[in-house]
Amino acid sequence: xxxxxxxxxxxxxxxxxxxxxxxxxxxxxxxxxxxxxxxxxxxxxxxxxxxxxxxxxxxxxxxxxxxxxxxxxxxxxxxxxxxxxxxxxxxxxxxxxxxxxxxxxxxxxxxxxxxxxxxxxxxxxxxxxxxxxxxxxxxxxxxxxxxxxxxxxxxxxxxxxxxxxxxxxxxxxxxxxxxxxxxxxxxxxxxxxxxxxxxxxxxxxxxxxxxxxxxxxxxxxxxxxxxxxxxxxxxxxxxxxxxxxxxxxxxxxxxxxxxxxxxxxxxxxxxxxxxxxxxxxxxxxxxxxxxxxxxxxxxxxxxxxxxxxxxxxxxxxxxxxxxxxxxxxxxxxxxxxxxxxxxxxxxx
Length: 348
Ligand code: DAH
What we know:
Number of strands: 10
GO molecular function: ATP binding; magnesium ion binding; phenylalanine-tRNA ligase activity; tRNA binding
CATH topology of the largest domain: BirA Bifunctional Protein, domain 2
Protein name: Phenylalanine--tRNA ligase alpha subunit
CATH superfamily of the largest domain: Bira Bifunctional Protein, Domain 2
Helix content: 40-55%
Distance between the termini: 98 Å
Structural class: alpha+beta
Strand order of the largest sheet: 1-5-6-10-9-8-7
Catalytic activity: tRNA(Phe) + L-phenylalanine + ATP = L-phenylalanyl-tRNA(Phe) + AMP + diphosphate + H(+)
Binding site for Mg(2+): 263
Order of helices and strands: HHHHHEEHEEHEEHEEEHEHH
Number of domains: 2
CATH architecture of the largest domain: 2-Layer Sandwich
Keywords: Aminoacyl-tRNA synthetase, ATP-binding, Cytoplasm, Ligase, Magnesium, Metal-binding, Nucleotide-binding, Protein biosynthesis
Number of helices: 11
Largest sheet: 7 strands, mixed
Bound molecules: 3,4-dihydroxyphenylalanine
């Protein structure tokens, strides 16, 4: 028995020496892992093999061999821990060396986008009206015949309903709105006076396309209803708007016009910014540029939405966004807005 104990203690000492010797050349985590499994591994480690024969020893033998084994095990474990730390430090240094960042290197330029000129124009116009207490609302691009035409006092045989102008989805019933005016009806039906709203949005017309006409463009509609409103309110409000948008020096004028949903109706012109009213190509030598259509909301329209025309009045207006942007930026080709040509868009 003594001999067997001695032999086991001897074996443990050999394991210890061998393990320490084999740890010497280990330089990577993978090698260290192998070493760990070989000597300290729970299943096949060399120490484990000795632990397996322990139950057969005498009490004294178990104690002596057990003590030695624990001593060897903890010594090897502390070697393992120390080497693991060494390797980790070495690898970290290697990574830092390899991935070194040069903070003095010039940065890479990331191009910054900006707003489309039409979006900007819409925002500038609605901002002016928001300052005057108007709300900004939006509505559907697919409309019914009722909202786009009937409720706006546009009878069945009106030229603007012509197949040439309207993109019908279900002929006579459903269409792509040809104007933002149907939102007048929707807004009035949803609220009670006083009403103050502006509606920017896309509109569609089946038109021949050229430098100043597109089948899809944008309008901004406006509506004000209360119990005091007169034609003077309309003029004051729209004149203030024009001066806010274009600057104090500009003149406005109103010309009589016709729209089925307003009575009286007018068009508002602004003095030409290009020639200051003297006459040039931009204003076709008239000194004036057309800005918007407007008028007092027709009593028929008020009755249609359940407002009493004796009690409430209001005015409405509508303007083309492309036309404002063309004039503002001196562009002569409407199709550029939707051509997605960055050389064009980057100028704004
Ligand atoms: N909807 C008209 C158009 O597309 C523009 C317009 C004119 C709107 C007069 C209005 C208005 O609200 O009062 O030509």
